[in-house]
C-alpha cells in the first residue's frame, strides 16, 4: 500500500486560506464499477455497490472536469446524460470550495439508478492518482488527474469503451500523443451536444441559458470590486451578512436566533422563523428585513427594538400577487386592533444554508416586449420572490411555464439572479399545469414514460400472454396454502393495484378465524435491487385527480403483486382466531398463497351488508358465497372498532372529492364528495388491526430500528380555535386526551344531527389542529412515545399497502426477518406488553440486511419517506384545486360571450367580466372569520374560499341580494331586476374576534341601489357567525403567473341559521347546564347513552355499561377542566376589570356565577395568532391530510 499526501487549500469564512494536508493510502483494489469489467469475477464483486454500475450498452463514458461540474451541473442532471464518471478529484474540490449544493447534486446523479453513473475514487487508486508538481496550478494538477483516470479506465477495461472528457477549459490540444491514440477525446459541452444530441432542443437551450448566466455572474464579480467597498447596499436596503463566526457566537449567546425562514402564503410580506426555546416565533416583515433570504433558507435573525415589533396580519389577503406595504395600516375606527398581539420581530443578518430549488415560473406580463436581455419571472409559488433571468429571446417565453433556478442574490440587486432551465408548456394548459405540480413537489417522474429504467425492468418477472407467470412449485411448498379459503378484496371501482384481501369464517364454538392478506411485494423486489432503489427514491405512488404515478413497474403493481381474483397470488398474511366478543386468542404471521374469489367494489359489499341477495355486477352464486363473510366481517369489525373508539380512537373527516370526467372532451362533468359507507370503516378497521399487530411484532424483533408510524400528541393550544368554535354553538369540546376529544365530538354529533355540516366542519377543525402522523425508527424515541394518538394504539405501522408505499415494503422485510428467525436478538432494555395476542417468539442470529437493523439508516429512510409522502399529498391537493378551478371555469363561463375552446384553455382571456359571468351559486358554511371577511366551505365540492366584505380599498360592501328579507311584500312589482352582483356600499363592520362579524347598512346607500318602495323590505344589519349557512357564488380570480384561485361572492343567507336571534344562545352540553336541570345524573347519563348509541352505529355494539363508563370518564374530565377554566377566566376577568378594561361590554356580574362568554373576557388572546399560523400552515394539508 502506497502512501501519498494531497494538499488542499480551503478558504474559510473569514477569507483566510488554510492549508490542509491529507494523508492518502493508495489502494490497488479500487473498483471500476463498470459492467464491462474484464475481470472474473468483476473487480467490484467484493464491494457493496449501492448505486448502479456503468452500463455496457453505451457508446462512451463521460468524465466531466471541474469547469463543467462547477458551472454546468444542471446539464449533468439532465436524464439524457448517462454513464458519467464523477471523480473524487472533482468532488473533493467542490467540497473544499464550499460548493456543497453542487456537490450534493452530483452525488444525487450518481445515486440515481437510472443514470448509470458512478463516483470513482481516483485519488485513492494506485495507478490513477497524480502528485502536484512544483509550480503547478491546482487546475493543471487536477486536469492531469482526470487524464490519468481516463488512462486507467482505458487500460482496465481494455479499451472496450471510448472515454469522452468534458471540459470548458481544456481541449484536445491538452492531450498527450498516446491518449489521442487511445481514443480519449476532450470536448466542450457545445461540441458534445452538437455531436451526440443534435436534435435535443432542451439540452441546447439549457446550455445557452447556463452560458448566459455565467457571463452575467462574471460581470457581477468584476463590478463587485467597486461596490463591495461601500458598506451597505444603496437603494435596495440590504445589509451585508455578518461573518459566520459572529453568527455562531450570536446564536450561542442567544443574541441571534436561527431557523428555517418561511414566508406566509397569504401575506407574502410577512415571514417567520420558529426560534428555539423561550422566544418562539419571530416575525420578519418586508423584503428589506428579509435581506435576500428566500423561503426555506436556514437563516440567522437579530431582533429589532421592541418599539418596532408588529403583530401578524389577520386579514384575508386580496391577491396572491400583491405585496403589502410594510406594517398594517389599521382602520382605527374598527375595534379590531385590540386583538393584536405584538410578536418578536427581527431581521435576517446571515444565511446558513440556501434551500433553492428548481422553480416553475412565468415571464412577467409584457416583459417579452422589452428589448433588453434581462427579464423578471414570477414563480408559481407566491412565497418565492421574482427572479431576474437573462434570455436573448423573451418572446418565446411569453405565456409559457418555465423552470428557473436561482444562482445568486447580490446585495445591490432587488431581485435574485437566476437562469432559465427549460419550458414546460403554455400556461394553464392541463399537461403543463400537471408537470408544474410534479416539478414543484420534487416528483421527478416523466409523465410519458413513467421513467422506470431498463435495468429495473430487466429485473421484472416475465408475464406475457405467451409466457404467463406461474407460481414456483418449490415456493408454494414453503408457503401456507390458503387457496381453499373464501378470500375477497373490497376496493373502489376499477382498482388495479389491489394490496389487500380478507378472509373470515366461523370455526365453531362461537370462534372466528379472520385473515388479512397483503400482496407479497418483498418476494419480487429484493433489497437494493434497481427496482428497490427506484421504489425507495419514489417513496410512494402519487395519485393525482386524473392520473397516477406508480412506485413499482406495472407488471408488479397491476399484475403479479396485485391480488386479482381467480389467480394464485403470493401474500403476507396475518391470521387471528377470536372469541365471540372479538377478543384475540391467537395470531399467526407468515407467507401464504391465496386465490381471491372476488374483486368486490365498496358499493357491492355495502349492498350485501344491507341485506341484498344480489348486487349489480356480481352473479347470484358468488353473492350467496360472499354475503355471510361480509356480514360476519362487519359484525366482528364493529366490535373491534367500538373497543378502539372507547380507548379514544377518533373518527375524523376528510373533505376528499372525486372528479368525474366527460368522455368526449376530458371536461369535468361533476365533482363528487366521497360518499361515506360503513364498508369503508370496516375495511379500514381490518387494516388498522393488521398494521397494529405487525407493528408490535416488528418492534419485538427490531427494538432499535423498527419502521413505525407515529402520531404525536397534539399541542393543546392548537385546539383553542376548535374549542371556541364549538362554544359559539354552545358545546364544550374537551381536548385533554384523545378519549375526551372523541367523547365530546361524539356528543356534538349526537346533538347536532340536523346539522351534519356543522359536525363535519368541527371534525375537520379537529383534524387540522392535530399534528401530522409520520414514520419513525423505533430507536429514535422511547417506547412510550410511539403512540398513535388518532387511532388510539400503542404501536402502529404501515403494512397493508406495499404496492404503493415503500414503508410497507420495509415493514414486510422486517416482519419476514422476525418470523423466519433472522432478526437480531431483541434487546432487553425496553419492556412493553400488548395484550391479547400470541406472538411467535423471535429467536435469532444476525443476518438480516444492514438497513433493517440499523436504526440510524432506518431513521434516514423514515425521514425521506415522510418528505415524499408529504410532497405527494401536496401534489394531490394541488391537482384537486386545479380541477376545482377548471370546473368553476366551466360552470361560470358564459358560452355566448367570446370564443370558447373547452376546459384545456383555462381562461387565458383574462379580466373578470361580471356581466358575462354566470353566477354559480351553492350553499356553504362559514368556516373561519377574519377581520375583512370570512372563509366559506362548500361541502358539495370540498371547496373553501374567501368572501371579502371589506374591499382592498377599505370600502365595506354587501350584496343587495343578501339584504332583502324574503316574505316581506315588496309593493309594486318592479321590472327593474338588479344584477346579481349589485352591492350596497358604505357599510360599517364590526368583528367580534373569531366567531362573528356584523355589517350595518346605511339606508341612504341602499336607497341609491333600489327604488324607495322596496327599502322597507331590506335588513339594516346582517350578522355572520361561525357555522352559519350562506349562499355564495363560486368565482375565479384569474391570473397568468399563478394558478387561478377561487373566491366567493355572497348571494344570500340561509334563512334558518341567520334568523336566529343573536342573543339567544343555543342549548348545549355545557356540564353546568347539564347538572342544573334537576334530573338525576345517572338518569341523565342513561338517556344520553341511549341517544348516543342510537346515533352512533360505531358504538352500538358496546353494552350500556361500557358506554356509561366511557362517557363518565370523559365528562368527569370535562367538568374538571371546566372548573379550572372558570377559575382562570374569573381571575382574568378581575384583572381586566381592574386595569383599563378591554372588554367590549363590562358586565356587572359575578364572573364565577354566570357562564361567561370567553371572547369578551379574554381580549388578549395570546395563542390566537399562533392559531392563525397553524391554520395557514394546515390549510396546506387540510384537504389531503389523513391522520392514518
Ligand atoms: Zn473492473
Automatic annotation (TrEMBL):
One of its GO terms (molecular function) is enzyme binding. It is an enzyme of class 3 (hydrolase). Residues 479-821 form the RNB domain. GO terms for cellular component: cytoplasmic exosome (RNase complex); nuclear exosome (RNase complex). Residues 893-917, 1123-1159 are annotated as: Disordered. Its cofactor is Mg(2+). SUPFAM superfamilies: Nucleic acid-binding proteins (SSF50249). Its EC number is 3.1.13.1. Residues 901-910, 1123-1132 have a biased composition (Basic and acidic residues). It comes from the Eukaryota. It is found in: Cytoplasm; Nucleus. InterPro entries: Dis3_CSD2, NA-bd_OB-fold, RNase_II/R, RNase_II/R_CS, RNR_Ribonuclease, Rrp44_CSD1. Keywords: Cytoplasm, Exonuclease, Exosome, Hydrolase, Magnesium, Nuclease, Nucleus, RNA-binding, rRNA processing. Gene3D superfamilies: 2.40.50.690, 2.40.50.700, 5'-nuclease, Nucleic acid-binding proteins. It catalyses: Exonucleolytic cleavage in the 3'- to 5'-direction to yield nucleoside 5'-phosphates. Transmembrane segments: none annotated. This is DIS3-like exonuclease 1. It comes from Entomortierella parvispora.
